[in-house]
Input
Amino acid sequence: MSPAFYDASCPELQSVVRRGMAQAVQKEARMGASILRLFFHDCFVNGCDASVLLDDTANFTGEKNAGPNANSLRGYEVIDAIKAQVEASCKATVSCADIVALAARDAVSLVGTRFSLSLFLASWPVALLTVAACVQLGGPSWTVQLGRRDGLSASQNAANANLPPPDARLPDLLARFSDKGLDARALTALSGAHTVGWARCTTFRTHIYNDTGNEAVDAAFATQIRAKACPSAGGDGNLAPLELRAPAAFDNGYFQDLVARRVLLRSDQELYGSGVGNGSTDALVRAYAANATLFAVDFAAAMVRMGNLALTGKNGEVRLNCRRVN
Ligand code: HEM
Output
């Protein structure tokens, strides 16, 4: 793979994807977070081969209805729209897997732009301040390696087996990431993606009501979330921001929340103070909580590593429609 893979065959690729993502985030601010998660769920099942985008067929049951994805994973239509734009410029050239990888990179740097634009429109005299806010809200960027091929199949079972559940404990998380060649540092940095986006009550109810001891939640936080977003019964689909401190910014507030035990998912809290894993992730969480730049650098590096779990060469194909094999 190489960042220059499409330089000759599709020189406008990166600007087409960027424009598509900017439009999608403009329409719905949450979409940046949703596309970032889509990339993670693609890469963790058969590698980053766009298998997550395949609709079910007579030959296989795909990943879209696997437990972690059903009624949860979002953004398929955004990738469809970008793919259509890319096909219009460069026919049968760019894989869906590469489009998702580029879209996820752009998603992170675009976080908060809609928020900033509305601030700008509401108060043009403080435009300079707003531009500064915009710079701070977006996350890091990185050079995307390209040349991924699209998979020929998808597997619901593989998605259920590979994607970590929200009640996972640290040894399980470490093992699942290690299976993909990703160490504790990559696990901790990548989990920082939960600085943006939303979760449904059903995914965090057990944590905020029942977890005790090393997994306990700050009492005031639990009271607030229970009342606002997650009753003990019902309201399964109610949404809460994964990071309450500054949900519209891609920052290191998530790690400060871990230290304060103010996060929604048990799998997140496991990274700090769980008492297992020799404290390897505790030290990283403290380091990221104290140093936003260190988090940004490590997050970008870990996204590149995760993105390298790819099909290349003559394997797979370049799909014409991301939802089905050619
Ligand atoms: C470490 C194990 C992880 C677990 C157990 C986990 C679990 C979850 C769960 C349960 C949700 C909420 C889903 C819902 O309510 O429908 C979520 C949302 C999200 N996850 Fe993760 N996740 C993990 C790692 C990651 C990684 C590595 C990334 C990206 C690099 C990521 C990005 C996101 C984003 C951005 C959202 C919000 C999506 C939206 O608002 O549409 N997660 N995750």
